[in-house]
Hints:
The structure is a single chain. This protein is α/β, with parallel strands linked by helices. It has helices at 11-21, 35-41, 79-87, 172-183, 194-206, 219-231, 249-259, 271-278, 284-307, 321-330, 346-350, 363-372, 377-380, 400-420, 472-485, and strands at residues 2-5, 26-29, 45-48, 74-77, 91-94, 100-106, 119-123, 127-131, 137-141, 149-152, 157-160, 210-214, 235-241, 264-269, 312-316, 353-355, 428-442, 445-458, 466-467, 489-494. The chain folds into three domains: 2-183, Rossmann fold; 194-380, Rossmann fold; 393-494, 2-Layer Sandwich (GMP Synthetase, Chain A, domain 3), CATH 3.30.300. The protein is built from 15 helices and 20 strands. The protein has a nine-stranded mixed beta sheet, with helices on both faces. Strands 14-13-12-15-16 form a five-stranded parallel beta sheet, with helices on both faces. Strands 17, 18, 19 and 20 form a four-stranded mixed beta sheet that branches. The longest helix is centred in the middle third of the chain and has 24 residues, at 284-307. Bound molecules: xanthosine-5'-monophosphate (XMP).
Amino acid sequence: xIIVMDFGGQYAxxxxxxxxxxxxxxxIAMPATRKEEIEKLNPAGIILSGGPRSVYGEDSLAIDxxxxxxxxxxxxxxxxxxxxxxxxxxxxAPSSKEYGKEMLSPKKSLLFNGxxxxxxxxxxxxxxxxxxxxxxxxxxxxxxxxxxxxxDDKRKIYGVQFHPEVVxxxxxxxxxxNFVKICGSKKDYAxxxxxxxxxxxxxxxxxxEAVIMGVSGGVDSLVASALIRKATPNIHCxxxxxxxxxxxxAEEVVSLYKKLKFEHFYRIDASKxxxxxxxxxxxxxxxxxxxxxxxxxxxxxxxxxxxxxxxITFLGQGTIYPDRIESAKASGQAAVIKTxxxxxxxxxxMKLKLIEPLKELYKDEVRQLGRQLGIEKELxxxxxxPGPGLAVRILGKITPxxxxxxxxxxxxxxxxxxxxxxxxxxxxxxxxxxxxxxVGVMGDARAYGRIIALRAVTSQDAMTADWAKLPNxxxxxxxxxxxxxxxxxxxxxxxxxxxPPATIEYE
Length: 507
Ligand code: XMP
């Protein structure tokens, strides 16, 4: 495997995914990982990712320098490139260059095998390397940056100032392929056939015992539960219907699990309880906490019921790889922006053993795995939906009327997106109900009604997002259908904020 040291950019996961797509397993590691731990992991290569810091900054991150003496091939990218220079005795200095496309003139090198005389590369400058460390040769320059790449073929240590993992670096994959070759990694990682391996592992772990799992119809819990079902019929799926789902969703989840032949599926209609608990609450974090707690209470009481008749010892979860890495990081320094609750913390309390078959996979890999399990593409391509559901899309107090109104608006928007082919081009798209009212004119009379906001974003991983540049005609048709069909809505607005500064959801 190849280890990707994460220096906090958006790029570490992208690098790992690219390496996996070359058939080599890649894992993320934190910069604080010591030499001894790396030796235990025994990677074929190490990649140091980019990141927003400067090697001279107060918050700079380094690696255990001893790692560079292990004889394992290393590739530093952007910050990783500067860090290598800094640690090995070269010189790094701030530069005021712009972000963007540059033209690289690569020299002959193992890392640049198969590249042309000129190559488009994409760089996000912070600092740049002024002098390479001793023993290193400069193997590429751009107009903006003299030492855009360096190499020490003897030690197999390489650095590039630009990002080979992004699509704007036209032959970036060739560079990564060359690095994988330098590492001598076996290309034995593939999603194809992984279903059989995972099913066998679940069978071996679970045996005759039973598994309980909370499901929502979302991609991760769907694929995880389908895998577990293939390993054992003793899986009990609990769908806590909080009444804050999209139009027709609860019924869809029920019929989906029926189609997938789950013998033990329970829909618990807790919508009245959730509404009662949320009555009068408008503060976003309070809403999230109430929903999280109520969810756990309902789920737990169902577990207790089922435990009376079944030997339930496992809790299945649809945790995927980025969830684990993000929560590991979050437990370190990151500020809590929003309380997310995906049944975390349940196992200790309920004394259940965890089973997380997707814990090493990225979302696109989960989708591929789902296809192998025979799950329809449309279900696997669904947009993410937050655990607290429409509650975080109704700003202010929640009432049954507001839920009904929002459901309808959301369904119209989704329908229009699907018709125009834009559903698959966006990461997420939905309607939200804004607080307050606005004046309108309907049938020559004054109207005073609600405001619906449409939000559609493009994103790689939901960490950052851009608002989607949807066609005007699509927005116009959606707006007109919403105001015509939904009584009490006088205005429709389109959200044009990026994340950051906004978040994707409203609360
Ligand atoms: P934000 O609003 O923080 O959302 O930009 C980032 C992504 O996470 C989803 N989201 C959630 N997912 N439980 C979830 O499982 C939650 O409580 C939750 N809140 C937000 C959101 O839809 C987006 O994809």
